[in-house]
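tool=predict chain=A
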Amino acid sequence: MEDYLLQITHIILGIVLFFIINWIGKHSFSVGYMQISVFVKDDNAPAFNVLVRILSPVVYILIISVILYKLNLDSFVKNIYMISIYYLVFRLVFNLITNRGLLINWGRQIFYWCSIVLSSFYVYKELIIEKKNLFPDLSTWTNQIWIIVLIFIYSVFNRISLSQKGTIRRKNRYLENRYGKFNTKYGIYIDENIDNIKLKMIAYAIMIYEDFNRPRIVRFLENIAHLITRKEHTLGLMQVKTKSLIKDKQSVELGIRKIVNKYLELIEYQKVKTVENEEERKERKNKLFVESGIVIPESSYKYEPSDWEVSEGIIKDYNPDYNYINEVQELSEILIKKYYPDSETTLIE
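tool=predict ok
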């Protein structure tokens, strides 16, 4: 019974470690930490990334061990290096069930896994088993010299630029997989409702981006939360706000309708703004205001609308977050270049 409780405790602590490291990653972009992303970003701090990934579990089990010893729960320290293994298993399962497998550099991951397991086991055997070994020995200058040497090595490696070819290849493969799947499942419906190539790619970009951040397992949990609370939620593949439980196909239909309606609204908005005749412009402006609530500035004669502005307006209506808008716009441009390289289609035709 004690061994069973020990394993359960270690598994829970391993899962907690997963969420802690994800939180650290999310809040550490200023120091170069990289997350798995749809977009290719330069690794400006390779040494930092390696150290965070390898040493975080080791530091975590050291801190947990100290806490357990202080609480006189010495029995839970037994084989505490297993927390790192449970953490790695949970991370692997999470990445696979959320379709992130195509984005993973498996060779690098295997290196991380081996390093984490070996370093965790070494620290457990050499430091954690004996309480007295948990505290650093600063009685000699040797320790301090080695700290300086390690800091120097870290600084050198942190300035190395790594090739992005493998990353670009994996992310292109991921985009091809996601686009191909969604095009097969929903392409006919999208083609029936959208003629403009650029608008289609915005729709697919939103679909891919939402799926990346709200994978199937998360959407399943959102459906359960909706059934329990009966409150309005954003549900389905395209994360449409609804009071009713909907499937992915329904969310795509509602999402496409929302995108098309906003597109038509913005195009009409731009047309009204370009009308030079004051009386005609006011008449059309008032009609549009009544129908959609859009306020058009009086000083908008000869307004030259930009394609980017219309694109931004469509995406902003879907999600006003600044990063969301930029990344979906960037993703839609990537899709156009990849699948319609010779297209000169614009949103404002």
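Confidence is low (pLDDT under 50) at residues 27-36, 288-303. The longest strand covers residues 233-235.
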